Amino acid sequence: MSTESIFVEQLSKTYKVPEREGGFGAAVRSFFKRKYKDVNAVQKVSFRIEPGEIVGFLGPNGAGKTTTLKMLSGLLHPTGGKANVLGFTPWELKPDYLRSMTLVMGQRNRLSWDIPAADSFLLNQAIYRLPDNEYKKTYKELDELLELEPLMKKPVRNLSLGERMKCEIAAGLLHRPKVLFLDEPTIGLDITGQARIREFLREYNRRTGATILLTSHYMADVTALCERIIIIHHGNLKYDGGINDLSRRIAPFKLIGIRLSEADSHDLSGYGSEVQNEEDAEKRYIRVRADEVTRVTSRLLADLPIHDITIADPPIEDVIERAFNE
Amino acid sequence: MLKIFKRLWQVNWAEQWQYRANLLMYLLYWLVSPIIYLAVWTSIAASKGDVNGLTANDFVTYYMTLLIVDQITSNITLHIFAYKVQDGSLSSELIRPIHPMLTNTLVNNIAFKALSIMGLIPIWIVLFFLFQPNFSSVTWQGIALAIPAMMLGFIIAFLISASVTSVAFWTTRVYSISEFYFALFLLFSGQFVPLTLMPPIIQSIARYLPFQFSLYYPIQLILGKLSPGQIIEGYIVALIWLPISYFLFNWVWREGVKRYSAVGA
User: Fold this and answer.
1) What are phi and psi of B123, to 5 degrees?
2) For the residues of A172-210, what is the DSSP string, one character each?
3) From residue A119, how far is each of A107, A110, A122 by CA, in Å?
4) Nearest by CB: B7 against A70, A98, A126
C-alpha cells in the first residue's frame, strides 16, 4: 500500500471528436463516412499528492485540468495510464470510494433546483449513510463557517450565485470526504465571497486533514491556499513544485504601472520592456526584473512627470503563460 | 437503503408537484391514443355485432382496464434520463454512492406514476359514465393474480427501457432507437388491439416476448379471460424475462458508463 493520497502515473485521455467541414456536401459525406480527430486532452501526466496537502492545479483553458479531475473522481475512463486515490481506482466507481471523496464543479451539482437545500442535504445524509448525530455535528460546523442556516429553507433557484455556491460546497462536504476535487470553487463570487470560501477550505483542511486538489482562475485562491502547484498545458505536465519557486524560477519580474500627468508620448524602452494591458488603458506597464525594481523606480520618478505609480507581481496567468512559452 | 428510497421519494415527489401542469398535459397526450382505439373499436363492434367474437363491451372493458394498467406498468425513463447523458448532468449522480438508474430514476418514475394515476381517476370516471362498461367478468381472484403480474411487468419494462436509454452513452441521441422500441411495444404489448385479434404469427411471437406483461397479460388477468394454462405460462415467461432484462441492463450500463464523456462543467 502506498502512503500517498493521490497517485497518478502516465495518465492520458484522448477524445475522439467527429469533424467535418461546413456545407451541405460535407454533411452528406459525413453521414456515410465519419471522420474523427483525436484530441489529446491529457498526455502521460504523473504526480503524487500526500495526505493533507492543498495543491493548486493550473493551466490555461483547455489545458486538461477538468479532464484530469473528472478522471480522478471517476467520471471518465482514461485512455491510458494509472491512477489511485485512497487505494481505489477511481473509475471503478466503488461506493466506498465515492463515500470518501467529493467533486465540486460549477454551480449546478448536488442540489435540486426546485426544492430547498435542506431537503437535498437530508437526501445526501441518507445516500452517504450518515448517522444523525454525525450529520448534525458536521452540519453545525459547516453552518458556523459558511452561515448556511438562513439559506436552507428557500428553493435553491431563488438563491443568489454566491449563496448557491456555499450550499453546493457544503452539500459536497457533508460526508466529510478525505479527498476534495474542486473545479473553480470560487467562480462567479465577489471578493468577500471568494475570501470566505478560501478561509473555509483552509479551516476544513486544518480540521480534517483532507487532501485538496483545486483549479482556479483566481490567483488569490491559489496563493492563499496552496504551497504547491501543478501546471499543465496542452495536456502535458509543465511544472510541479512550490508556488514561490515558480515565480522565482520562471518569472523573476515585477510590473511597474505608471500614470503620467502629461501626454503619453514618452519612450519607456530605456527602463524595461513595456507590456500592453487592455484592462487599464490609462496606465502604462513596464516589466522589470525583480532585483532592479528599486533602481528603475527611482529613475522613473526622477525622470518623468509621474502622477501615480504601482509595483505589483505579474498576474499568475502571465507567469504561467511565460512558463509555457519558455 | 430504505431511508435512501424514502428521502429520494420525498425529493422526487416534491419536484413532481412543481411541474404538475406539465404533467397534466403529458397525461392528456398519453390518454389520447387508447381513447381513440376504444372509440373506434367499440363503434365497429357495435355496428357489426362483434369482431372475431369480441363484442363492443369487450373492447370497452379492455381499453378502460388498459388505461389503468398502462399507468401502473409504464415508465418514462427515456424522458427523464437520456438528456442527463447528453448534457452531462448525470455527472453529479454518478459520483454519488448509489446507482443513478436503479435508485433515483426508479423513484422518479414511481413519483410520476403516483401523480399521474391521481390525474387519471377523474378522466376514468367520466369515460365510465360515457361508455357504461359491464365489468361483471372481473373477480377479486383475477385482480389478486394481476397485481404481481403488473409489478413484474413494470420492473421488466423499466429495465428494458433503461437499457434502451443507456444507448445514449454511445450515440448521445437515442430517440430513433426508442421509436423503434415503441413500435415493437405497440405491436406486441396489446396496446393497439387485444392480441387475440393479431395475426396468428404475431400472437405466437408475442407469447414469448416481454411486452405483453406491460398490458395484455395483466389486462386479461383482471378481466378473467385467461385459462389456468395461459396464466401459468405467462408467469413462467415473465420470470424468465426478469433476470434476462436485469443482466441486459447491467451489461449495457457497465459498458456505457465507460464511454460517458461527462460534458459540461
Assistant:
1) -65, -40
2) HHTT--SEEEEESTTTT--HHHHHHHHHHHHHHHHHH--
3) 18, 11, 5
4) A126
Which of A120, A123, A127 is facing B97, going by the closest CB pair? A127
Nearest residue in chain A measured CA to CA from B255 = A77
Q: How many angstroms separate the CA atoms of A185 and A69, rounded?
A: 13
If you measure CA to CA, which chain A residue comes closest to B4?
A126
* pLDDT number for residue A107: 60
Q: Is a pLDDT exceeding 60 seen at residue B251?
A: yes
ipTM over 0.90? The verdict is no
- For B95, the closest of A96, A98, A125 (CB atoms) is A98
To 10 degrees, what angle do helices B2-18 and B20-48 make? 80
Task: Identify the three-state secondary structure at position B41.
Answer: helix
Map out the domains of chain A with their CATH numbers: 6-247 (3.40.50.300), 253-325 (3.30.70)
Q: Which three cell numbers stand for residue A99?
A: 463515500
For A13, the closest chain B residue by CA position comes to B261
Whether B96 and A15 lie within 8 Å, measured CB to CB: no
The answer to whether A76 contacts B11, with C-beta atoms less than 8 Å apart, is no
Q: 10-residue block means of pLDDT along chain A (326 residues)?
A: 83 85 75 80 94 92 89 94 96 95 80 89 94 94 89 90 88 94 86 87 93 87 90 89 77 81 73 74 82 88 86 74 64
Q: Helices in B167-215 by DSSP H: which ranges?
A: 168-171, 175-188, 200-206
Whether pLDDT at B265 is above 60: no
pLDDT tens digits along B90-146? 999 999 999 999 999 999 999 999 988 988 999 999 999 999 999 999 999 999 999
Buried/exposed A24-43: b ≥16 CB within 10 Å, e otherwise: eeeeeeeeeeeeeeeeebbb
Q: With an 8 Å Cβ cutoff, is A120 touching chain B?
A: yes
**What is the torsion angle, in degrees rounded to the nearest 10, for the CA atoms of residue A259, residue A262, residue A268 and residue A272?**
-20
